[in-house]
Amino acid sequence: MRLSAALAVLSELKLCLQLGFVPTLRAILRSPTLLLRPHGISRIFMVHVWSAYGDGVDTNSRSVKEGLIPANAQGVVLDVGAGYGHTAKYLDHKVTKYIALEPNELMHGEIRKRANAAGFTEADGTLVVLPYGVEDVATIMSALGEPQSVDTIISILSFCSVPNPKQNIRTLVELLLRPGGQLLFYEHVLSPRADVGWWQHFWTPLWRCAMDGCCLDRPTHEWIKQMDGWSKGELWGLPEESEEHLWWHRVGRFVKAGR
Ligand SMILES: C[S@@+](CC[C@H](N)C(=O)[O-])C[C@H]1O[C@@H](n2cnc3c(N)ncnc32)[C@H](O)[C@@H]1O
To answer: Containing domain of residue 103, as a range?
Structure first.
């Protein structure tokens, strides 16, 4: 593996620090008790980083999202880690409700703006913004009113950040997704190349600390593929992505068995 590819994390971290350090420091100076809540600090930092990164990442992944989301998403859609709500604009008339699951409440204003622009509003019940993480599945289920009431679960670059992902993704699918419903995802995952994987493991402790829990080294696509209970599943990659990319992506569509 080329050293420049292995060290790519450093330039990304530098950029993130440039974007997030000063506003986060200002927030701490305004409210020093934040120092007692490191997770709160991490979320403020992430908000500033993603407000600069989010649009660029969305633009770069537009063709992948256009291939994955409009063709498949339908009915009640749960967007895991909705971020700034970039997914909303890929949802078409087949979608009756957009549920944005986003534990970082500092992002909720932008989710509402983007969802409203795409035609989903809280006033007519087509938009629900939930301030929970995937690990709070019981709370999510009680907010939704009934089990297995979601037609489509979408995760765009979010399963990399959730705690205890293998268990939580399984529980999410078992309890929230209706039989016949789909899980759609676009994630950066552990590379099959040993040398790239070695660097992904090496950088993850530092990267997850800076990026609100984001891990570079999760074989999320494999975990999902190995789960029981799918009637159908497809996995694909990005045609022009270098094998040396530390953020190596997989795209997937899995259909829950039972109908
Ligand atoms: C890299 S951002 C992606 C945001 C969005 N999906 C997009 O495509 O722009 C990861 C998101 O996952 C969210 N997240 C972190 N921990 C989470 C958890 N436990 N459950 C659900 N989402 C979480 C973060 O707050 C953040 O908004």
So the answer is: 3-256
